[in-house]
Q: What sequence folds into this?
């Protein structure tokens, strides 16, 4: 004997009474027993308003079946309408006699009887199929599908099981552009739970309401407004509907009794990053304060500085790709770079730690960079800068100087730290790409005294010319010896082109501050004074502005993931070449613009100097007012006693004064072009 508690059945049958209350109180006159599938017809008048109609019987039968989905009844016998008790319920007795009518799952034929008497007014034999939406009668032949016109909801929503069918047709939610004063509609479908939670998170800041997820699991989500000290009436409940595998808004009290809240706790960095993704894509350098101001203007809510920072970081990850994911694709990027740039050098260095491959170093020297170096001055700048990404690191660069006194990127590398070992690895690859030791030994390298660079240079290229960036030297000098007088004297000593002039200035510094003199004399002058520069570089540059200019372009790029950063560097070099190539093709002169401007400047200063011819092309040049200043110019050897012509490779002011005296008319322009041609002519091969 299988017994099911009467209370549980009464609770389910109670839902029938809500929909059949009016029909149950009608007086039925002269209606005979009728079986839906048996072929017998009712004796009453069809469609008479005083009795049960055929549609009402079918509707009531399906409702009983749906409410008793756990029992899967076979027989239902309903008592007279007068047998309903005060609560509008029917007492039900379900008995199992253990016969073979019960199936394997324990589903048995059931009899639903009135508590008042045993004679039922409506009897039906019916079978149900759990895998189908159809209801079939015994007599054959009635197939139909029922759908409710109303939303079925009980008094205790959390205890209602939502895996039943037939709850009507309701709209499907679509996210509006603006959720200000949005009106929620009960019964709205959501394709998944995330769609409902996103709608709530968007609704909260748009209306300035402090909402909270009271329940949030796989079956239900309930949201409560915490405004007015938690006394606000607004409430929303969304449950999972197993029949259609979607979520439905089951209950909503869409009325706030609270005022607008400036601090919305439901807003988080992940949600905010999705809203800011388009802005970050258009303006990657957007500051944290700008994000806070924009949120305040758009939603009239406040966020913390940390939330704005995290939201910007997440948005950048979505735009540029995550840091860890790009490190996994670094092999693919290296192969693609070699495929699209044949002849380039790309090196990738990794470490294998306990079976895990860890990125260590990356080096790239494009084929166009190698070819362009043959047309440049033998002068190379080296520098390193920090990477501002999540995993840190250092960016090492090598920059050349082209015929127009502009920068030409040669190679770049990403290393784990700047030390002697990383500089050795970088310089070995650079020397091989630029032509080997024989070519690089004739070049001059300028740097900022990076860690481990000087000893490595002497090991790889013994006796090579090196220079220090004077701007960095003065920054260290100023920390100990401040004052405008010392600053002026130091830069005067740096710019002196003749050793005697340098010695005279150093004596002046000693008179002003002997400690400052000892500090400068401790640094070999061949590294920082033009008076000791060799003539091989044909360049008198004192500062490493070539590398500083290149680093300034990469300030924002250095914050990106590694592949995005390397791509930005490659694209910058490519665009620079294209721009210079177009300028060269449209330029009609024979001398580069910057070199020509420099020659014009030197030529304009000849009014202060008087040349005197000695023999052949040997001249003596003296100042017009200061008789103590005089220099010797040898045009055949392209030399001047001030050494400026030899260091730069360009005629100086003293040489131009001799040109005006010795060469007149068209021969003057031809002569100047002849002596500066080798270093200043523009050729498309340069780019």
A:
């Amino acid at each position: 004997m299988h017994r099911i508690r009467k209370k549980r059945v009464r609770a389910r049958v109670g839902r029938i009474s809500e929909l059949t209350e009016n029909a149950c109180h009608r007086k039925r006159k002269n209606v005979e027993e009728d079986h839906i599938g048996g072929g017998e017809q009712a004796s009453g008048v069809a469609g008479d308003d005083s009795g049960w109609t055929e549609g009402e019987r079918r509707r009531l039968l399906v409702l009983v079946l749906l409410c008793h989905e756990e029992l899967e009844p076979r027989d239902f016998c309903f008592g007279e309408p007068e047998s309903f008790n005060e609560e509008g319920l029917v007492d039900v007795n379900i008995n199992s006699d253990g016969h073979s009518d019960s199936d394997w799952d324990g589903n048995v034929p059931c009899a639903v009887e009135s508590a008042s008497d045993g004679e039922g007014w409506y009897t039906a034999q019916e079978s149900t199929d759990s895998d189908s939406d159809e209801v079939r009668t015994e007599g054959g032949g009635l197939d139909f599908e029922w759908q409710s016109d109303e939303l079925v909801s009980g008094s205790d929503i959390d205890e209602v099981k939502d895996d039943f069918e037939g709850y009507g047709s309701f709209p499907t939610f679509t996210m509006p552009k603006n959720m200000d004063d949005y009106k929620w509609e009960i019964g709205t479908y959501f394709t998944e739970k995330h769609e409902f939670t996103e709608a709530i998170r968007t609704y909260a800041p748009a209306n300035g309401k402090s909402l909270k997820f009271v329940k949030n699991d796989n079956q239900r989500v309930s949201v409560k407004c915490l405004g007015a000290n938690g006394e606000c009436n607004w409430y929303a409940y969304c449950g999972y509907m197993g029949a259609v595998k979607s979520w439905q808004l089951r209950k909503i009290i869409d009325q706030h009794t609270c005022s607008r809240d400036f601090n919305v706790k439901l807003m988080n960095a992940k949600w905010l990053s999705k809203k800011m993704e388009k802005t970050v894509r258009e303006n990657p350098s957007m500051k944290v304060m700008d994000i806070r101001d924009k949120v305040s203007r758009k939603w009239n809510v406040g966020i913390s500085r940390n939330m704005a920072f995290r939201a910007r970081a997440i948005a950048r990850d979505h735009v540029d790709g995550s840091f860890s994911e790009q490190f996994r694709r670094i092999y693919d990027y290296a192969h693609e770079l070699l495929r699209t740039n044949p002849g380039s050098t790309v090196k990738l260095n990794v470490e294998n730690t306990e079976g895990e491959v860890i990125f260590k170093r990356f080096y790239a020297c494009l084929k166009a960079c190698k070819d362009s170096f043959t047309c440049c001055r033998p002068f190379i700048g080296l520098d390193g800068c920090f990477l501002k990404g999540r995993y840190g690191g250092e960016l090492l660069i090598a920059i050349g100087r082209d015929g127009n006194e502009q920068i030409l990127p040669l190679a770049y590398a990403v290393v784990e730290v700047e030390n002697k070992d990383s500089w050795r690895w970088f310089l070995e690859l650079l020397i091989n790409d630029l032509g080997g030791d024989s070519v690089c030994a004739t070049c001059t390298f300028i740097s900022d005294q990076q860690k481990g660079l000087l000893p490595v240079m002497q090991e790889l290229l013994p006796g090579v010319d090196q220079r220090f960036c004077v701007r960095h030297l003065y920054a260290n000098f100023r920390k100990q010896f401040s004052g405008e007088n010392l600053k002026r004297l130091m830069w005067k000593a740096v710019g002196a082109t003749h050793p005697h002039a340098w010695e005279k200035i150093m004596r002046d510094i000693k008179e002003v501050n002997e400690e400052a003199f000892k500090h400068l004399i401790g640094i070999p002058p061949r590294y920082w004074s033009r008076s000791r520069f060799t003539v091989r570089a044909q360049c008198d540059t004192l500062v490493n502005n070539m590398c500083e200019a290149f680093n300034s372009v990469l300030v924002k790029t250095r914050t990106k993931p590694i592949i995005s950063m390397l791509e930005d560097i490659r694209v910058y070099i490519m665009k620079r070449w294209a721009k210079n190539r177009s300028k060269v093709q449209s330029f009609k002169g024979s001398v580069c613009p910057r070199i020509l401007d420099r020659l014009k400047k030197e030529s304009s200063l000849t009014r202060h100097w008087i040349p005197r011819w000695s023999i052949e092309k040997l001249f003596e040049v003296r100042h017009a007012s200061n008789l103590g200043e005089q220099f010797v110019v040898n045009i055949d050897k392209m030399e001047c006693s001030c050494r400026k012509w030899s260091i730069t490779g360009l005629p100086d002011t003293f040489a131009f004064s001799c040109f005006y005296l010795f060469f007149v008319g068209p021969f003057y322009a031809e002569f100047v072009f002849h002596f500066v041609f080798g270093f200043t002519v523009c050729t498309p091969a340069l780019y």
Summary: The longest helix spans residues 562-586.
